[in-house]
Sequence to fold (352 residues):
Amino acid sequence: MLKLFVPAYEYGESLFFEIFENSDRQISISHIAKPYFELVGDPQRADWIIIPIFSSALTSDKGKDLVSEAHLLAQKFRKPFAIFSNTDIIVDPKVTPVFIFSPGTYASMKNQVELPVLLYYDPIQRWQNGNWKPRIFNGVIEIGFCGQATRNPLKFLKDWYTIESLRFKKKNGKSPFLYIPRFLPAFERGRLLRSLESSKGLKTNFLLRSHYKAGATTTADKNKVEKEFYENIYSNLFTLCLRGMGNYSVRFYQTLAMGRIPVLIDTDSNLPFSDQIDYKNIVVKVPFSDRFKTEDYLIDFLKNKTNSDLVKIQEACRKVWMDHFNSKAILENLSIEMKSLLDRFNGTDSKG
Fold:
């Protein structure tokens, strides 16, 4: 069980990371996290010093002071220091060393630890009545995608202006964010999907949206759009997963949950719990620089695989989601990840 120290602070109504809960201004370990974590009142006894609220609530002067003070405390007692992010673009903590736990981390950036995206229900239970079946490969490579993707020049200009405005503020010291890449998700998806549609060796099943979630506003429309989304994943052996504004794909987790094989376009991505999950056997990972060669990666992945092999891979995808990415499993596996990081921090891990 990992021992956590939380600095004193007026946390108020801030949103807490799932390890913690705040009742009557009393911070405690959440019910589902109690088997894996405990709070201690003495930082010297702690394994980790942690700020329990998301970094998006720490951009005020008061919040920055909390980060600075917690970091100094960690340095004093030689403890690893962690913050949690819940925004697509990670807030700059302005201190180092610090472990940043977040979806959308970058593999090339030190001490960023990928968190999985939590789905709030099991899509197989909801949309397939709990009856999962594998997709049988008939010799034709099927790849699906349902979501926002467009090469519309007005959308391109709108997204470009948003990104460049953020980068300008960052350059002039008026942005709270750590790193803002020049990446236009809808445009990049549109370009890649168009290229895949022209591939003679692929059967593409793309349902393109010009707006996020097809612009649905009513409950009935939202349910219809969501059902179409999951049906698209379920009816294809492979689903293309390319990041959004943050450096992660929610569709990646949704594809695993449906027991299908993600085709992940790697944009300097980390994958969560990678020491615990053998992703290379269940995910087709394509470097962003090779994205227009995705068909080649699919052919290579399928080489020498029988239908029985592909059924087992789909079963493994589903099992990975069930065993690692529901709310309880996320915290259990996060505790394992944090214990491994602690060992490395203390120099006791043979991996170095």
About this structure: The first helix runs from residue 61 to 77. The first strand starts at residue 2 and ends at 5. Residues 123-323 form a domain with the Rossmann fold fold (CATH 3.40.50).
